[in-house]
Amino acid sequence: MKVIIIGAGPTGAYIAKTLREEGFLGKIIMFSSEPFPPYSPPVLAEYLESNGKNKSIFWMGEDFCDRLAIDCFMGKKVVNVLPFLKRVLGEDGSQYEYDILAIASGSRMWIPIKCECSKESDKEKFYNFKSLTAVEKLRRELTEKTKKAVIIGAGFIGIEIAITLKKMGLSVTVVEMMDRILPRMVNKKIAQPLQRIVKKMGIELLLNSKGKLLRGKEKAEELVLSDGKVIKGDIFVAATGIMPNVDFLKGAGIPIRKGILVDEYLRAGSENIYAGGDVVEVPDLITGNVYSHAIYPEAIKQGRIIALNILGKGIRYEGGVNMNSLYHFGLPLISEGAMEGEVEHDEEINIEGENRVEKILLKDGKIIRFELIGNKKPAGILHSIMVNHSRVNFIKEYIKTEKLNFALLTEILWKN
Ligand SMILES: Cc1cc2nc3c(=O)[nH]c(=O)nc-3n(C[C@H](O)[C@H](O)[C@H](O)COP(=O)(O)OP(=O)(O)OC[C@H]3O[C@@H](n4cnc5c(N)ncnc54)[C@H](O)[C@@H]3O)c2cc1C
Known about the structure:
This protein is of the alpha/beta class. It has ten helices and 28 strands. The protein has three domains: 2-108 and 243-310, FAD/NAD(P)-binding domain, CATH 3.50.50; 111-240, FAD/NAD(P)-binding domain, CATH 3.50.50.60; 323-415, Enolase-like, domain 1 (2-Layer Sandwich). Helices cover 23% and strands 28% of the residues.
């Protein structure tokens, strides 16, 4: 049997790794549009800060392809899939046959801001932080002349790059169209102390400010906001959101909305085509809404299930769970469950103590979201209660007093 994997991100790498671990001896061919062995995007900030010296970014080892006997085509983009011939098409016109195809083409930066620059592709004028290729490009631009960075977007990638560039000695301004940083992760109240920490680091925050136009003569020089204000900078980094990489699948008959739509076995419209990771839209385990979850644990989980299903194990994928954690503020910040504002809740538990803030949202007596700052201890237990859809009415007081422990958890799960 011949398996082709499109993409060498965490999903693609995990499909290949699991296949080999499970004793698959057939041929595995892997394509990546980037010329690197599999790398870990969450390590990109440390990689940049170390000026490319932190090799732990290659989390599966730089010898991944040889060690796992994979025919790797790193730096070769797949430009189409021909399911009726069971073939993929490389950008140089070469064709490769498969028995099973796994699409793990991930996502790219989505930049909804116009550019009015004089040279080459306008979009090239924005830098981004979405891939190792993009970070290498950014690294080349960080010369002694680069003094001021403007980051557009204060989500977790935007905040991460802002803090990293600040640590590297640049002056940094972050432009965010919402009224707070990390708008999908925390509400306004929780965002406020975090914003104070970011400002204390010397980062300028412009909230309620929408980037409209990037312009310059020889290079990008200034960002015009929708209120007419102009922000000057030496480098402009977009952290404005992501889009699934599906363009190359046009006409292939694979079900696509924004991302690829898959069934409960992560099959994409055909018995022998699977898809997983940032490129797919899957139901959320807590809210039932279907969208790309775009987080590392989902990439790994889906990659593993795809590999096992290629081997005929018939594992059902139950749904995605959003979770984000950030450690840049000098204290842990964890949020999990429905996104901020995604669904209505009917009850809210708020706990505030010294260096500790917890917010738990309930709907019909079940946890649908929690946010923890300073104290990450309850995360595991709250996660288990939430994904099991257990009713928590009778243990609410315990949650507040931190008495929640595994013995009680077992009791809750037993009673529900
Ligand atoms: C800076 C940063 C920090 C992050 N931090 C966290 C974190 O702390 N926690 C967390 O949970 N998540 C984090 N994430 C998100 C997480 O990294 C992604 O959810 C995960 O990488 C998704 O894996 P993937 O393999 O599906 O896609 P990707 O990582 O996007 O990989 C896709 C792969 O497909 C290749 N490809 C695309 N199109 C083609 C084509 N046509 N032909 C061939 N190859 C193609 C690409 O080159 C790439 O190798 C972070 C992401 C970034 C960018």
